Amino acid sequence: MKELHLERLPIDKKDYKKRTALLSDVTNFITDDTIVYLDGVPALLYLTLQDDTSGLRWAVKSQKYQSHTRSNGLKQESNLFGYTPRISYRQDYCTITAMAEKYPKQHTVISSFIENIHEYYEKYFPETYDLHKKTVDERILPDWKIGDTPFTSGIVNKNNALKYHYDTGNFKGILSNMVVLKKGVNGGHLVVPELNIALDCADNTLVIFNGQDLIHGVSPIEYEDEGAYRYSVVYYSLESIWKCEPLGDEIKRIQKRKTEREKNRLNPEHLEKLKQEANKGTKKSQDELNEFIQKTKK
Length: 298
What we know:
The chain is an alpha+beta fold. Helix content is about 35%, strand content about 25%. The protein has 7 helices and 16 strands. The protein has helices spanning about 55-60, 100, 105-110, 115-125, 125-140, 245-265, 270-295, and strands at about 1-5, 30, 35-40, 40-50, 65-70, 75-85, 95, 155-160, 175-185, 185, 190, 195-200, 205-210, 215-220, 220-225, 230-235. Strands 1, 3, 4, 5, 6, 7, 8, 9, 13 and 16 form a 10-stranded mixed β-sheet that branches. It has a 4-stranded mixed β-sheet with strand order 2-12-11-14, with no helix packed on it. The longest helix is centred in the last third of the chain and has 30 residues, at about 270-295.
């Protein structure tokens, strides 16, 4: 394991945020197992995994992915796994992700793989790992953690050359764990300009770092053939999961919300209100039509 002792570079983050990550932005390229220190404290790990990832590879390749825009405006093709918190106006309860329902076997394989790799987190970042575990144990109920780990959730990115960005929504001061699986591609490096480094992100590699603290992006990806791919599987701990109640209470919450919606559908006053709003729209459209007819007669 190589050690690299660095100082954080003073960069103008406005020059990087939401633009394409380029290898020319940095001068140091990491291809071997390396741990990076900032001010004597471990800040980033790049490691080739010896673990069997064949099951994980099957799981990420055997599902369809959703195209969507992240909260920071970045477009990507990805699927979430683990647990999701309450989302105002859309989902007023905590629940499992869509992957767990659509692809339960794949979800189990992907979620459980963190059991293989979080030991590296504990080994190379002992103080941060202890803080991570303590924070999650104190604030997150066991129902909403992935196995016997401090992680709650994650995302699988498919062929995403993400522009420079910061991760959002995780507990502060803790690290994300990312596994990269790829075949037949060139590029797709993880570029971290503040550290003046780019990680090769070869097949079967693990990256551990704080994506909320360090701006980072993925360099452009070139595909050699139709079977080429680059997947990254990222495990993290969502801070908003602390609002989740015990699983049984969340199930009751879901049932209560569904019951309220059904009552609204059957409530005469609610139906009358909806009918009045619809009539207002119809009357407005009719008035506009009559006005148009009168103008054409003149």
